[in-house]
Structures are given as structure tokens and as C-alpha cells.
Amino acid sequence: MTERATGLLRAWTRALFGSRARLRWLHLVLGGALLMPYWLAGTVVIGPIVGSDNAFTGSLPHQFGAYAVALPVAALTALFPPARPLSVAAARALCGVPGQLLADGPAHSRAARGRTSAWFTLHIGLGGLISGASLALPPFAVTLMLLPLSGAVREWFRAPDYPAWQLALFPFAGIAMLVALAACVAAAGALLARQAPVLLGPTPADRLAAAERRATELAERNRLARELHDSVGHALSAVTLQAGAARKVLDTDVEFVREALAAIEETTRRTVGELDSVLGLLRRSEGDEADEGTVATGPALDALDGLMSRSGVPVSLTAEGDRAAVPPPVSREAYRIVQEGLSNALRHAGARPVSLWIAVRGEELEITMENPLPSRAATVRPGGGRGVRGIAERAALLGGDAHAGPRGDVWRLHARLPLGGAR
Fold it and tell me: Which of 169, 201, 233 is the C-terminal boundary of a domain?
């Protein structure tokens, strides 16, 4: 036998009797098991018509008539939404179909339910035929293979007196039956594997829902990234400045060093609390319910005085309107915008005075912040870094806008937040 013929034989053997073929056979047998209740109900309907009371000893018209009645009934029951997750789980485990090609979750749209019904009907229809053949053909094939070897088998089989050369053909006929059964199983399993992505794959509505879920997850990740950046970035900038100033006057101004260390302690303590809150959200498992109190936590405008006192830069605040009337979501985002603005001022201009205006006018909250530009223009980043981009994202999520850039000899940050953006 040539090498090519040997390779073809191995490929055919793997296709008919390999692990994938065996799993698909189990999948078909499962379909046959699922068909049984519908088939038994069909025998009750067909029995009086063909004049038989026993489905197992009835004629072939009785059994195939019950089969024909069972399939439409099964198709109707598969229209319920939970049918798709069960079918998908079985197809992923036994049919050899990549999981990403199949839909997740129940079928809610009419098109998805129709496809699931078609799949379920095809699965149990083929499964019933393959299961019946798997029960009937192997015993018959083994009997044929034993006919030339045992007179008792020939007597039980009531076989006529065949010539010896004819008896010698019966084992080959039995083997051919088993190979034909394996080929039918492989063909039926391959048909189900090809149809699974078509009938159990995601519909356009499923793809849209998955895209919305991914967008929601991405927005949540971006929000947490902004929280970490603003909170930790501001704390590190303030601590670095305070520590550097304390180091310079360590031997001459002990009182200033004491105040700087106290500010560092307060800043790091508060930041650790905020960091724990954000990390708690990151550790939350996907299936956990997130209530408003867990997700929407963090300092707001009422903590602005504490922020300015430990920011590391002198801040002059001009306020207009009632900050207490600002909705909590807008108030929290406004706090983060001010915090990031102070961090940028501290990072690029050092401990130089910052002017801050906060005004509540009608249905808007306006934030304006100005600080002198650093003496070395090269250190200024006109496009801003992640912090400036994060400020713009926070404002956009609330339906507002924010801009930052040089204006004359100052760096100016202006943000407009609609109070209705909390909704």
C-alpha cells in the first residue's frame, strides 16, 4: 500500500471513528433521547388510525407516522426562549463547533426563535433516525458475521442452507453495514456542525446587544481609568511637591516641614480610600449587581475646600450660585475636573497661584481655572495629556464640553456641565 493510500485510509478512519465522530454520535443520540417523549405522544395519535395499541410492536407506518407527528410538536416547544441556551451548550460540547460562532443567552426575537426551532427539529429528527439505526443495525450485523461460524446462530436466524462460498460473504456484509452506519453518523454530525452557526449563531439583534454590552463595559473601564488617573495622579503630584519643598527647608524651617508632612499624610490617606473604592469595583465579578451606592461614590463639590487646602498650590476661589443644588453625579464629575486642573497646574507650573471660578447659572455649572504659564514654554503640552482628555470625556458624558489651552500668558481650563446631564 502506497503512502498516499495509507494517509487516505487514516483520514477516513479518523472521520468515521475518531473522537470528533464519537462526540457527534453522542450528540445525535441525545437528540434521539429528546425525541422520545414527542414520539410516544405521536403514537397515541397515530395508534387508533393504524389500528395498533403498542408503539414498540407496531408496524413501520405506525412508527414513522408517530415520528411525523412528533417533529412539528417539538418545533413548537422549541420556540420558547430557554431552548437556545440548552441547544448551544450541547452543540459547543459535542458538535465540535467553535463557541464564538454561536449565540449566548435566550432567543428573544422572532427570527432567533424560528432558527432555534429549526435547529431543534433538525437535531432530534436526525438523532431519532441515527439512534434507531444504532440500536437495530449492530446486532443484525454481528449476527451476519457469526452465521458462517455457528450452526446455532443459523438455526436461530432461520437461515436456509447456503453454500459455503455464500456463507463466507455474510461477515463482509455485516462489516459493510457497520461502516455504512458510521458513515451515516459522520454525515449527519457534519450536517449539524455546518448548520449550527447558521441556526444557532447570533442574529443582527444579538450582535447589536453584544456591541452595546461591550460599549457599556468599555465605558465603565474608561470611567474607572479616569478615577484612578485623577485621584492617584493628583495625590502623587501634591505629595511630590510637598516632599520636595520640605526637603529644601528641612534644616531651617521645622514648622513648615511638619505642615508638609501632615499634608502628605492627609493626601495619601484620602487617596488610599478612593483607591480601595475603585479597586473594589474592578474586583467585582461580572454577575454581581452594582447598586447606585457602590458605583457612584467619590468626593463631590462639598469636599472642594479640603482639596484646595492640600493641593500644594495657592487657590483663590470665586463661587456663584448654590453648589448644594448641583445633582450628585454632576457634582462628583465637577470635583474630578477641578482636581485634575489643579494637578495639571501643579505639574506644569509648580506652586504658583491658581484662580478658580465656579458658577451655577440656571441649568448649567461652569468651571473656569487659570494659572500662569511656566517660564519654560517647552514644558507646556498644547494638546494636553490624558488628564485633559479625561476632563473632556467627563464633560461629554454629561452632555457638556470642556476646553483647555494657553490663553495669553495663562493656561485656561473651561468646562460647561448641564445639570440635567445627571439624567
Answer: 201
Residue 361 maps to which CATH number?
Answer: 3.30.565.10
For residues 417 and 364, is the Cβ–Cβ distance under 8 A?
A: yes
CA atoms of 275 and 219, how far apart (whole Å): 19
Question: Which letter does DSSP use for residue 146 in this model?
Answer: H
Grid coordinates representing 384 are 494636553
On whether both 279 and 367 belong to a single domain, the answer is yes
- Assigned C-alpha cell, 203: 442574529
As given in the structure block, the three cell numbers for residue 219 are: 465605558
Pair 344, 234: CB distance under 8 Å: no
Q: Which among 150, 183, 201 is the end of a domain?
A: 201
DSSP code, position 101? G
- Do 279 and 382 share a domain, yes or no? yes
Domains of the chain: total: 2
Report angle CA 25, 28, 33 to the nearest 5 degrees. Answer: 125
Determine the structural domain holding residue 148 and report its residue range: 3-201
Q: Identify whether the C-beta of residue 398 lies closer than 8 Å to the C-beta of residue 422.
A: yes
Q: Are residue 196 and residue 228 in the same domain, yes or no?
A: no
Set of cell numbers at residue 148? 458462517
Starting at the edge strand that comes first in sequence, how are the strands of the sheet with 315-320 ordered?
A: 315-320, 354-361, 364-372, 410-418, 401-407
How far CA 83 is from CA of 93, 104, 340, 347, in Å, comes to 16, 12, 51, 58
Q: Are residues 385 and 262 in the same domain?
A: yes
Would you state the pLDDT for residue 54?
56
The DSSP code sequence of 154-194 is HHHHT-----HHHHTTHHHHHHHHHHHHHHHHHHHHHHHHH
pLDDT tens for each residue of 181-235: 999 999 999 999 999 999 998 878 777 777 787 777 777 777 777 667 666 766 7
